[in-house]
Design goal:
Length: 512
């Protein structure tokens, strides 16, 4: 018996949560007369699909692939369960597996083996054209870089270990292996690149040159220097007759690196949002941004509301050279006098006061702000890109996935937004969505989908009272999110002088 089969359903144990599955269903799949053992998929030989371990056992049954390993046997079900639960917890956090993957245990001949059941997917080896496979390898490598950078996991970079669903190469990738490592070494990435050469006999030196270009233009965020990776690619063991192809690949990898997003208008753009009439915080942000090289400015809305210095803040934003400004919900309410749209009672009270201190010219500056700014490869809104009005809905826990999906459908890789007053980026990468809070450097790629919130200048709500902003380096495609301290006492005195609610000062001091 090549695929280990238990005597009865009592020797199948499901690890929760198993959804609608029962041990009887799993047993029925194993003993189904149409089930076929996939012996030919085991052992990597030539271009055939396969797992690297000869102890792997695969069984295809009614659209599911059952997998176990004969070298992973445990004398008790408890030990097997502990191993499987630990492996599963690490990968689940990084969402590396197909969401329908089922985890269970098989009792055969007095021993317990882990059994996983996954829908039958297309592995990257089985994609039809070289072009599709090449794009999928790039995504596989990016997925491994992301899993390591974001979740501290090492994935085994073999195209037999990665698969896509029915959508083919453009769909997200799933990791098929259960085993996860702690690290991704530069050598592993180099190996994943070079090992494709002997598999693809029909590929020409031109194909390898192009793939090298593609990798150079696309991969972001590795914990290695690019020249180190190219060095490892040069050194990786390869048959002498394939050296010409490797040389073409190395040429492609070494090409001058193109701009990642858009043509640079200027090097560094300061991105900021939710100033809320806090002049001391705005001054600190603009000074820090200029000191750090910003020449352009992108303001994401809510110049006014809550704070004591609306006219001065409007003036400072309006006079910024080389700038783009869009409308927030407070700007909208205060400009139109319609204070019932998207405003709580504290916001309403402050908006009513703000209307009494702004001139006609200042109100009409607010009224003329556009609700969005669109470029071919990035956009900016105050609230959420999915919201038809752009400045009312929030990107938060319940809506960020929807908004990422919407951007993907629109083929829009990058959207800057504000409104939540929380410094936070979301990215939809090869392995699904991730959240990246706080101060950090984000390496944008047009192959991924990004929602970036620089945080709030004048009323942060993420527990850090310092003013928040971001710097976008248009040449490298990096966005760095930053904080700068400002004198809250100055703003607090102005709040008291304007007789605005005391609750506002508490919010500023607590960053809440
Ligand atoms: Zn706001």
């Amino acid at each position: 018996m090549w695929f280990p089969r238990p005597d009865d359903e009592g020797h199948v144990i499901l690890l929760e949560p198993s959804g609608t599955w029962s041990a009887r269903d799993v047993f029925a799949l194993i003993v189904d007369p149409t089930a076929t053992e996939w012996r030919h998929k085991v052992g990597v030989g030539g271009a055939s699909d396969g797992s690297a371990k000869t102890t792997t056992r695969l069984l295809a049954s009614r659209g599911w692939v059952l997998k176990t390993r004969t070298d992973l046997t445990f004398s008790t079900a408890g030990d097997a369960r502990a191993w499987l639960l630990e492996a599963r917890a690490r990968g689940r956090a990084a969402s590396v597996w197909h969401p329908d993957k089922l985890w269970s245990l098989l009792g055969v001949d007095g021993a317990w083996l882990p059994l996983t059941i996954c829908p039958e997917l297309t592995t990257l080896r089985n994609l039809e054209t070289l072009r599709e496979r090449r794009a999928a390898w790039t995504r596989m490598i990016q997925a491994a870089i992301d899993a390591h950078r974001l979740h501290g996991l090492g994935l085994d970079l073999n195209p037999a270990n990665f698969a896509t669903g029915p959508g083919g190469a453009s769909e997200r990738l799933y990791y098929l292996d259960e085993e996860l490592y702690d690290r991704l070494e530069t050598r592993n990435v180099a190996g994943a690149i070079v090992a494709r050469i002997p598999e693809e006999r029909a590929a020409t030196t031109d194909d390898w040159l192009h793939w090298g270009h593609e990798l150079r233009a696309t991969l972001v965020g590795g914990n290695f220097r690019w020249d180190e990776l190219v060095g490892e690619v040069r050194e990786y063991p390869l048959a002498a007759r394939l050296e010409e192809r490797r040389a073409a690949l190395v040429d492609g990898l070494g090409a001058p690196r193109a701009a990642v997003v858009a043509a640079p208008r200027a090097e560094i753009t300061c991105i900021f949002a939710d100033v809320h009439a806090n002049l001391s915080a705005l001054t600190a942000v603009l000074d820090a941004a200029r000191e750090q090289g910003a020449t352009d400015f992108l303001f994401l809305g809510d110049a006014v509301g809550y704070g004591p210095e609306p006219a001065e803040c409007i003036r400072r934003i309006a006079e910024l050279p080389r700038s783009i400004a869009i409308r927030g919900n407070h700007d909208h309410a205060i400009a139109t006098g319609n204070l019932d749209v998207g405003m709580n009672s504290l916001a309403k009270e402050c908006a009513a006061w703000t209307r009494t201190v702004l001139s006609e010219a200042e109100l009409s500056w607010l009224a003329r702000l556009p609700i969005e700014h669109m470029e071919p490869d990035w956009c900016a809104v105050h609230g959420a890109p999915r919201d038809p009005r752009r400045f009312l809905a929030y990107v938060y826990e319940l809506t960020y996935e929807d908004n990422l999906r919407y951007l993907k459908e629109q083929r829009m890789p990058l959207c800057f937004h504000g409104h939540t007053h929380v410094q936070l980026a979301h990215v939809e990468a090869a392995l699904g969505a991730s959240k990246l809070p706080g101060e950090r450097t984000l390496e944008l790629s047009p192959r991924q989908t990004w929602l970036v919130n620089p945080g709030s200048v004048g009323q942060p709500r993420d527990g850090d009272p310092r003013a928040a902003f971001a710097l976008w380096n248009r040449r490298t495609g990096e966005v760095t999110t930053r904080r700068v301290a400002y004198d809250i006492d100055v703003t607090a005195r102005a709040l008291r002088a304007a007789h605005l609610p005391a609750r506002l000062e508490e919010r500023l001091r607590g960053g809440s």
